[in-house]
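ok so dumb question maybe but i'm new to this and my supervisor (M.) told me to 'just get the structure for ABC transporter substrate-binding protein' and walked off. so i did the thing. is this what she meant?? sequence i used:
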Amino acid sequence: MKKIFSAVLAAMLTVSLAACGSKTPTTPTTTGTTAAPTEKTIEFTLSTPDPDTSSVTVAANEFAKKVLEKSNGSIKIKVYPNGSLYGADPSAAVKQLGSGALDMLVLSTSLYANFEKKFNAISIPYLFDDTRQFTDYLNSDTGKELLGSIDSMGITGLGYWTRSFRQITNAVRPITVPADLAGVKLRVPNNPLWVNFFKEAGAIPTPMAFGEVYNALQLKTIDGQENPVDVPVSAKFYEVQKYISVTNHMADGWIVGVNTKKYGELSDAQKKVLEDVTMEMQGWKVDYDSKQDQTAIDTLVSKGMALNKITAEQQQQFVDVSKKLYPTFKELVGDEAFFNKTLEFVGKK
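this is what came out, is it supposed to look like this??
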């Protein structure tokens, strides 16, 4: 059984479009800059959308700890999980961050796509071969251009953190090929890229706020959902789901954003601390997720869920669905030049 779990973990960390091995992403090193001890103290709230035990909230708390240390106590960050400061409404969260009602926010790139369509490029199904390629893209000039697009919203993007690739859980059957999705009512984010892909694959995509998912699964309003594998653990979906299928179908990142006006209250040294720690945490989170994904798989199986992984041949059927939709995805990205630059970066143009 341990050998099976190890193989699954390898599959999750290496999306096998090109059958290439995943490597630990390389991120720029930071110099460990520390703010001067005489800096004035500034307090921030930092909101995350998921529970205390989720990967993103664990990372947010580690981020707050490192910032406090490296700023010599001059930047104090209090983390609020579960979207508690913005009513668990991600669109409201982005607006509140821009207006200054929120100080800092860690929110997925796919949700920013509701405000800047180019963020859809990140989640094109089966775009990235592995975690390293994904991280390199986020840190590239193309990724930085994308992050800079939120400046006009009154938000300063400190950087990106990665998420593990997304997997499918459901209560109907194991998912091995697109045909297995036929008739499955699958919760997806409120994003047309997800809707188009899963509809073409044969599912019945059902956009729904994340906070409503557990009850909908319990009441059988929907059959399944898709997320990185830590989510069905922290949200206890194993209580209402039977199958976990390792499909690695999409990437999604986290944007670490701060209200621009509040950010302007910091000294240059304090700003550098936030930027450096954000980058440092990118590598920290990749390592953390690689370990926690295996723990999550073990937990889901121990709770009674049936695990399956798809073969390279089966995955190719999903890849073909995605490629068929490239003209649609280009429209959803809304910028042909940026769409083409993204495809060129990953070698899929």
